[in-house]
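Comment thread on ticket #2218

A.B. wrote:
> Attaching the input chain for the structure job we discussed in standup.
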Amino acid sequence: MTTEEGRRLPRFWCGIDWSEALNDVAVVDEHDQMVAHTRVEATDEGVREILALLRGLRSSHRHSRMQVPVAIETPHGLLVAALRAKGQPIVVINPSAVARYRGRISPARKKSDRTDAVLLANILRTDGGLHRAMPRTSEQAAAIAVLARAQRRAVRTRRYQANQVRSLLREYYPAALLAWKDLPDGIVRAEARALLALAPTPGQAAALSKRKIADTISGVGRSRLVDDHAERLRSAFHQHHLRRPPLIEAAMGEQIRTAVGLLDQACTAVEQLTEATTDAFQAHPQARVYASFPGCGPLIGARLLAEIGDDPDRFTVRGLRAYAGAAPLTWESSSSRVVTHRRIANSNLKAVGHIWAFTSLTRSPGCRAHYDRRREQGDRYAAALRNLYGRLLSSLHFCLKNATRYREEAAFPQR
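C.D. wrote:
> Ran it. Output below, let me know if you need it in another format.
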């Protein structure tokens, strides 16, 4: 076979429409013809069947299944993990983008599993250059991503349960809200949860002795000014407030006891996941680079690493800032031109970036000066923090690329 004939060898693209039960697999060639189709389960046998199908598309020794990219709408699941472990290139396409492609080929936007698999393959065939394969993230970084995202979900769950408890207390137990109103974390504090579980109604709280209160709060970790705090709580519980009828108050006490139990579980989950996340992050080789940045503690560093990954070729500087929502977005048409912030971005990375930029203000003179300068130029609070976050990301990208630590004089040279 001549070189020119070798160049004209047909190419193939694969699409997988995933589901909980059967996954439709379709392969198209360069002439937009479906050359293979099957339905498999997310099992070892199903993975072997997919690989055998891709391998058998052409009998030539020039053909390899590694030359066939696979498009799918999710980066998660056992099927994706198994194909990646076998070295198969996987391209994840956002479901909203797939829906828009569906409207291009059919005004009625008809949908079926088989046609969706063909559609995914054709997206790679026509616009493959616009979609990149999944990054080569290490197993260690992937584990950090699992823990960091689980920790963030646990924090949201704790906030939800705390709001539920607060809402219930407003209905019949205002003394409990006032007792910890001026202390950090309020009713989420361990001593608050312990006392609410012990005395879930105003009547039971008023009957507590100072010694019982002191023993309860010291039993959950309070060691300073125990007697003073116990006396303050006892006085707060004895203040006069509006009360519910006894039977209703008792019923609401049982309700709050259950809600406090759920809040206890959420707090325990946050503590355990925070510890596991920070331990996994500090064991990663790139942890020292993240830790060298101002305001980037173990938890913030773990969340950043979870979303950025440790593939050195995944991002350019501009790509990383756009992915994190720290790069401006320009809408330009005819004579109008609007520059606004980027709303379509990695929401997890965008959220932790705001926290990171805020905490750096008190730990880095350069960050503070940059923020103040942006404010003087007319930026609002969020815009100035977003710009500072983009600047920090640029420095982080450089340090990760060159395996060096953060240097203030290089990141924010004095003017």
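A.B. wrote:
> Thanks. Noting for the ticket: The first strand starts at residue 12 and ends at 17.
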